[in-house]
Specification:
The protein has 490 residues and is an alpha+beta fold. It has three domains: 12-285, Bira Bifunctional Protein, Domain 2 (BirA Bifunctional Protein, domain 2), CATH 3.30.930.10; 302-404, Rossmann fold, CATH 3.40.50; 418-487, C-terminal domain of ProRS (Translation Initiation Factor IF3, 2-Layer Sandwich), CATH 3.30.110. The chain is 35% helix and 28% strand. α2 crosses α6 (180-201). The longest helix is centred in the C-terminal third of the chain and has 26 residues, at 391-416. The chain starts with 11 loop residues before the first helix and ends with a strand. 40% of the residues are buried.
RNA sequence: CGGGGUGUAGCGCAGUUGGUUAGCGCGCCACGUUCGGGACGUGGAAGUCGGUGGUUCGAGUCCACUCACCCCGACCA
């Protein structure tokens, strides 16, 4: 046993770190807070991209690309936006280096100071709205439904692989609309897309809701969110969609003529998910043996491991395995036949378990003789034999079964760790064990801050579905139908 | 930015009051036996001990400065 993980019961965050490193997903780089995403981790990101990109296209969006650098003045045009991001911006002040006088390396050339500093984008609203100004004159130019796949930089104090890195990959949608209603509809549509993606593709059950004023995106009038529960009971914000109102249109003076010939400001949304989703997948499904990947995003859905002693056996097993591999491939199942002679079966079993491959097929002389294969399910760790004949059909069923099963398991976990509370004391008593706490809430910004100070928990979201009956707000005692989820968060 | 800690082989670590040739485990390479849950044996390669300066006959070890990283807080997708 060469690669063992710290058990998650012992130290959840150490378990997470071990897993990311040992499953070969990513590693820390020589740049503080920035990670190297390794091929296996990147393959998961590519799966996420492919599926989401398709969903964006299906909802009428197109991709474009905007610059990495934003002139400093742009950022300050929307007051609350700059306030939200100012403290974590990387700033470019110079554009050239020169040899240092003592000829030991290079120094920044003081002559090459930029007239106006550039900001490395922490998000692209400002540069995009500055561009949209030139693209929009008439209601006929609307809506503008654009997404970009990009990297952004937020100079975080403390970072963790995938969950919070100084640079991260994401997609950001930026749309422009003629009416408030249409923009609101778009913001809601996209949070629904995220929910569907999280649940159907990542097998992560999420709770959809809106953010309180405190937690809202800098510059947004409304922020919709999907919140997932990790296996330690903490919440992870997994995707957000913002209704930006006319804030950015006003800041960048983006107006259009409506059909009545009147000049109006454009309505906006923005929405995004990031490489953080990989962290969410890891923390939702994995166990002490390693990753557990949902078949829908697993870079490898099936691994075939040959077992043999003699050369003759090897020939037979390879032949048997090659045929299975090509059959599965024909049915669009991503499969690899690991016929390397440099590693032994036991080693391979452990390796692919660590990497979360949903199904393992082992084939040896016994299996050939009995016209069967041995199957091992990663999610349940069960082993059983399947007849060779029905294999492809059975594998398909199994893959979809695994996808369902891990979703249901995560959902059960969330349900078991969600509690209804009726006062703050109940929260204080229980919050340390993690979980989601549902409470009636009609408190102010200050009430929320106080809640945070007292419990270290935050209001993750205001539930979309209000209660049918009035309840008592846990902060103010007021009667309200509005309910919130309170939890400790990543 | 406050508090704590760590820098020694690819990784994880040991190295006593300063003393010869700096060790151990994993990994790596070669050969042989193995091969249905991370095999074993034998041999081998691999280190400017984070950096700079100092004390000393002698520094991984002591002193000063410095750099980097990690953990805990304040900030966050």
């Amino acid at each position: 046993m060469a690669k063992v993980l710290t058990p998650k019961e012992e130290d959840y965050s150490q378990w997470y770190n071990d897993l990311v490193l040992k499953a070969d997903l990513a590693e820390n780089s020589s740049v503080r807070g920035c990670m190297v995403i390794k091929p296996y981790g990147y393959a998961i990101w590519e799966k996420i991209q492919q599926t989401l990109d398709k969903m964006f296209k299906e909802t009428g969006h197109v991709n474009a690309y905007f610059p990495l650098f934003i002139p400093k003045s742009f950022l300050s045009k929307e007051a609350s936006h700059v306030e939200g991001f100012a403290k974590e911006c990387a700033v470019i002040t110079h554009y050239r280096l020169k040899n240092s006088p003592d000829s030991k390396g290079v120094i920044v050339d003081p002559e090459a100071k930029l007239e106006e500093e550039l900001i490395v984008r922490p998000t692209s609203e400002t540069i995009i709205w500055n561009t949209y100004k030139n693209w929009i004159q008439s209601y006929r130019d609307l809506p503008l439904l654009i997404n970009q796949w990009a990297n952004v930089v937020r100079w975080e104090m403390r970072t963790r692989l995938f969950l919070r890195t100084a640079e991260f990959l994401w997609q950001e949608g930026h749309t422009a609309h003629a009416t408030k209603e249409e923009a609101m509809e778009e913001a809601l549509r996209m949070i629904d897309v995220y929910q569907k993606f999280a649940e159907d593709t990542l097998a992560i059950p999420v709770i959809k809701g809106s953010k309180t004023e405190n937690e809202r995106f800098a510059g947004a009038l409304e922020t919709y969110t999907i919140e997932a529960m990790m296996q330690d009971g903490k919440a992870l914000q997994s995707g957000t969609s913002h209704f930006l109102g006319q804030n950015f249109a006003k800041a960048f003076d983006v107006k259009f003529l409506n059909s009545k010939g009147e000049l109006e400001y454009v309505w906006a949304t923005s929405w995004g998910v990031s490489t953080r989703l990989i962290g969410a997948v890891i923390m939702t499904h994995s166990d002490n043996n390693g990753l557990v990947l949902p078949p829908n995003i697993a870079p490898l859905q099936v691994i075939i491991v040959p077992i043999y002693k003699t050369d003759e056996e090897r020939r037979q097993v390879l032949d048997y395995g090659n045929k299975i591999e090509s059959e599965l491939k024909q049915h669009q199942i991503t499969v690899k036949f690991d016929d390397r002679d440099t590693h032994k079966p036991g080693w391979k079993f452990a390796e692919y378990e660590l990497k979360g491959v949903p199904i393992r097929i082992a084939i040896g002389p016994k299996d050939i003789e009995k016209k069967q294969v041995e199957i091992a399910r990663r999610d349940t760790l069960e082993k059983f034999n399947l007849s060779r004949e029905q294999l492809v059909a059975q594998i398909k069923v199994l893959l979809s079964d695994i996808q369902q099963n891990i979703f249901q398991k995560a959902l059960r976990f969330r349900q078991q760790n969600t509690y209804e509370i009726s006062n703050i004391d109940e929260l204080k008593e229980n919050i340390d064990k993690g979980g989601f706490y549902i409470a009636y809430w009609e408190g102010s910004k200050e009430d929320e801050k106080q809640l945070n100070e007292q419990t270290k928990a935050t209001i993750r979201c205001i539930l979309t579905e209000q209660s049918d009956v009035n309840g008592t707000c846990i902060a103010t005692g007021k009667q309200t139908k509005k309910r919130v989820i309170i939890a400790k968060a990543y």
